[in-house]
Amino acid sequence: MKKGMKKLVAVFMIMALTVAVFSACGGETDEEGTTVKIGIIQLMEHPSLNTIRESIIEGLAEDGYTDGENITIDYQNGQNDMSVMKSIVQKFVANECDVIIAIATPAAQAALSETEEIPIIFAAVTDPVDAGLVDSLEAPGANVTGTSDEVSAEMIMDLAKQITPEFKTIGALYSSGEDNSASVIAGLKEYAAENDLEVVESAVTNTSEVKQAAQYLADKVDVVYSPIDNTVASAMASATDVFNSAGVPFYVSADSMVQDGGLATYGIDYTVLGKETAHMVTEVIEGGNPAAMPVKKMSDMSIYVNTDTAKALNIEIPADILESATVFTSAE
């Protein structure tokens, strides 16, 4: 091969390698070669989690960071499987992503287990301290921070008192494998002890157990409560069928769970949470240090009510609650 031809081949090889490096984590470089690579790992496909992801992407665009232009986004579904999520994060690390966005607690835990260097911004982690993600809400202390979707059991039980005031026993339906659920149920027990109420627990490990757990509670309690629990949220149809048939009000902790048949909740707007998460990602892209960025808790709360469920239970929602509530029907 002639010397000039060898030089030309070498140039093309270098160009190819450069493109390969900047194409990692799901995209291509922009015209200036300054694309920021973002990996998004989401626990599972679910309406609330999908809303968060979509709102994050919208929020980034509002901040001036658009997928395919000056950022590239590699979205991966964790399939509610920790081994799958760890493999996804390993890919993000190998591809040298600049930021990892983790939606829901197990996704954030998987991300932190694989990297202590790449900034991790989590979304919808109820109790990041209890989950072992941050040192404190005010000073996270490492490469992780994000947004919390915490809504106390006390707030929702106070709403329940307004709708169904005579209850004495509360069923707790939750996943034993979700750290956030355990901490919220602990808060429920404290509330019950202070108000002379009894809590009956029924924990599950996967969605296939939700119906049986609901049946266990249905003839033992006056009302049922579930925290922001992804396992229960994925099996709402099974749970609501059981509770509606038994005439037991089912209070939940997320708007999507009300839309899927829960009676009511007092919760956050996941679109707002997603946008706030995006703004934190923007701050990191522009040089912010996650260790010094306080975890953001949502202050914009709303009441959500499913009127079809209320009708099935022969419950009349007080007029003052309906006036201020976002109303769902199960058909929506």
Can you put this structure into words, describing what you see?
- This protein is α/β, with parallel strands linked by helices and 332 residues long.
- It contains 13 helices and 13 strands.
- A six-stranded parallel beta sheet has the order 2-1-3-4-5-11, sandwiched between helices. Strands 7-6-8-9 form a four-stranded parallel beta sheet, with helices on both faces. It has a three-stranded mixed beta sheet with strand order 10-12-13.
- Helix 6 (179-194) links the parallel strand 6 and strand 7.
- The radius of gyration is 23 Å and the shape is elongated.
Structure, briefly:
The chain has 13 helices and 13 strands.
Keywords:
single chain; 332 residues; alpha/beta; 6-stranded parallel sheet; 4-stranded parallel sheet; 13 strands; 43% helix; 19% strand; disordered N terminus
Helicity, as a percent range: 40-55%
Estimate what percentage of residues fall within beta strands.
Answer: 15-25%
Written as H for each helix and E for each strand, in order along the chain, the element string is HEHEHEHEEHEHEHEHHEHEHEEHHE
> How far do the termini sit from each other?
69 Å
State the helix count: 13
Assembly type of the chains comes to single chain
Unreliable parts? 1-24, 26-31
Which structural class do you get from the secondary structure elements? alpha/beta
Overall morphology: elongated
Strands ordered across the widest β-sheet: 2-1-3-4-5-11
Number of strands: 13
Structural Rg: 23 Å
Main sheet attributes: strand count, strand direction, barrel closure: 6 strands, parallel
Mean pLDDT: 90
